Amino acid sequence: MIKRTINGLITAWKGLSLTIKHLFKSNSKREIVSITDDNYFKKQGNTNTIQYPKQQLPIPEVGRYQLEVEIDDCIVCDLCAKVCPVDCIDIESIKATEVIGQTSDGSKKMLYAAKFDIDMAKCMYCGLCTIVCPTECIVMTNQYDRTVFELKDLTYEFSDMSPEDAAEKRMLLEKQQAEKQAAKLAAMKQKEGGA
Ligand code: SF4
Ligand code: SF4
Q1: Whose CA is nearest to atom 6 of ligand 1?
Q2: Which of 5, 45, 100, 165 lies 20 to 30 Å from 24, alpha-carbon distance?
């Protein structure tokens, strides 16, 4: 009985001394070092907290965080939306009536992005969209903290078109298509008349 009690006290003391050791060690502030530093894992020891947001942990270069779209370089090909396994990219394109410019890599832009929304609440950060993008305009940034109060605010809107502009472009396209159709019909009639 006495032996058991002594063993119990020794075990309790060992556990308690370990807790006390960590309690005092964790008072030291976490030093921010690069992930490439040889001492990275050593220097992350002995601390429990960091003074966020003044202090931030280094993030690996290959980390996958919030998506960003450079809309000026987007050719609205829809590939990213098609490859997305969780359908969190919602794109609405409007065909332009002529070439509207070119991206920084020289690709012609023939479509407007009337809507380009990404629901980051649904995104599973697989990175597939960034891989298929032909102009590399959709990228994963090193931003991991975009705290919001409303769920809807996690839907990022990248289109820079106003609804009025989109309506105007749709109207111009319809007009052009109607003119093309009329010209086609006139050419057919002329052909039939000549035959
Ligand atoms: S990272 Fe994956 S889940 Fe997120 S938008 Fe891109 S393809 Fe979809
Ligand atoms: S794959 Fe790239 S270019 Fe195509 S719609 Fe998506 S972001 Fe734009």
Answers
A1: 129
A2: 5
Pocket of ligand 1 (CB under 6 A): 67, 83-86, 88-89, 118, 123-129
Using most ligand atoms within 8 A of CB, pick from 64, 68, 86 the residue to mutate for ligand 1: 86
| pTM of the complete model beyond 0.90 | no
What tens-digit pLDDT sequence spans the chain (195 residues)?
889 999 999 999 999 998 888 777 666 666 667 777 777 766 666 666 677 777 777 777 778 899 999 999 999 999 999 999 999 999 999 999 999 999 999 999 999 999 999 999 999 999 999 999 999 999 999 888 888 999 999 999 999 999 999 999 999 999 999 999 999 999 999 888 766
Task: With CA atoms as reference, report the closest residue to 66 among 162, 148, 149.
Answer: 148
- Tell me the CA–centroid distance for residue 64 and ligand 2, in Å: 18
Q: Are 135 and 103 in contact (CB under 8 A)?
A: yes
